[in-house]
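If your schedule permits, I should be very grateful for your opinion on a structural question. Thank you for your consideration; the sequence and its tokens are set out here:

===
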Amino acid sequence: MPVISRISVQKHNKERYSVFIDSAKGEEYAFSVDEDVLIKYQLKKGMELDDLSVTEMLYQDDIRKAYNLAINYLARRMRSEEEIREHLRQKEVDETVIQEAVHRLYEYKFLNDHEFASAFVRTQMNSADKGPELIKAELKKKGIKQQIIIEAIAEYPLEAQIEKAVYLGSKFAAKNSRDSSKILKQKLEQHLLRKGYPFQVINIAMEEIIVEKQEDLEMDALKYQGDKLLKKHANLTGSEFRRKIKQGLFNKGFSFDLIDKYLNSLELE
């Protein structure tokens, strides 16, 4: 059996050690291990090594390396278990080693999907404009179990959802003030749906957001859209011109009464 001739700390990593053995050719490098593995197996000069022991040591060393990779990944921010597993897979770590590393992370309380999910919800609620449905979808993508997601989303109460939806909706309405009230309402509902707000919240928020405009403001929006259509159909005349303008404005959500007023004003001009 080979005998350890020397153990030296690695130059670029003071927590890893290179193990050398005597051979017919003289001293040669055998393998390297983490400091924890070195201590666990009490490796020292003159110690005899057998294949089974070396295999077990190297397996434990692989677990330690995977564990260290995970710790470094966790140093940036909290992670879900699935995020850790995927990170280690990308580093081409064997699945059995990943399982042991993950077990160790739970043992030392570096992993906790319940705490991760709750913290994720609070962060998204306070720093982003995402609604609960979008947050739940992101948690699912991160491998969080459904029951944990349900418990975590309770961190985002209905009152906060409504307040955020009203704020986002009001900003959206101001930016799209040149749309008709009808189209603005449709766009606003779709905007809040894409942001992840449920219909219950959207319906309540819509009651607080000023969407229905007074007639003079609606007419201002109509004139803006109408003037764009005038340029588009400038090559038309007569009834065809009037029909195109009327159809275009109706498609943009304006009432026939306001459209007729607009067209009549054009004829007067």
User: Anything to note?
Assistant: The domain at 158-208 is CATH 1.10.10.10 (Arc Repressor Mutant, subunit A). Residues 51-74 form the longest helix (24 residues).
